Amino acid sequence: MILYEYPLQERIRTYLRLEHLFMHLQQLLPRVDAMDHHFALATLFEILEVSTRADLKTDLLKDLDKQKHALDSYRGNPAIAEAVLDEVIGHLDQCFEALNSLPGKIGQTLTESDWLMAIRSRIVIPGGTCGFDLPAYHAWQHKPPAVRQAQLLKWAETLKPMADAVALLLKLLRDSGAPQKVIVNNGQLQQSLPQGRTFLLLRLALDEALELVPEISGNRLMVSVRLLHQGEDNRLQAINEDVSLELALCA
Length: 251
Prior knowledge:
Blueprint: E1 2-7, H1 10-28, H2 34-50, H3 56-72, H4 82-100, H5 108-111, H6 114-123, H7 135-140, H8 145-157, H9 160-175, E2 180-184, E3 188-192, E4 201-206, E5 212-218, E6 222-230, E7 236-238, E8 243-250
């Protein structure tokens, strides 16, 4: 099964983009090649670009606090394991404290480095990090792999509170949705969302063997899915047959 996710709110869109970038960064950091470290730096700068929203830190803190209060309401419920509940709430508290203790905006430590910002300004230009453009960066790429890696880990560590908060919030969000089998008639599905709840994320699982790609759109009132067939030439074409898939709405 291939899992597709579609955010129904801009804040969740930002969280998913950050998660995507942090996953790339985690794959690049253990490597030792200078080219891998170049792309690790590029990914760090992409994370900074996404997280420069003035209210991102506030949004994360509010969501962590909201989740904590929601889970606190389950205390005393015989169907809930108190030990597991305490563990999750403790994790929320840790993420809140770590994020709240960061000075200023997220990534401020990195943006205060003139050397990093010089690379950041050139890395978006095609070929902008050539040796003649950034000789200091060229020299850094020739340092021993362990030296480069140690610096990358140090820079990435300044973003860890944000990464941990995003990972925990998305995990709790995903766990809130129960997958259900749905039949998509003639390759198209349009579904009104139940009133009284604010759904934030749609998750859709498709059998890989079908070679279908979902085109998803949605808002707080309705979601729409159109299934397209991906042929050998990778062109997408609409289908007119019934297909079974798994759908989950997370609030």
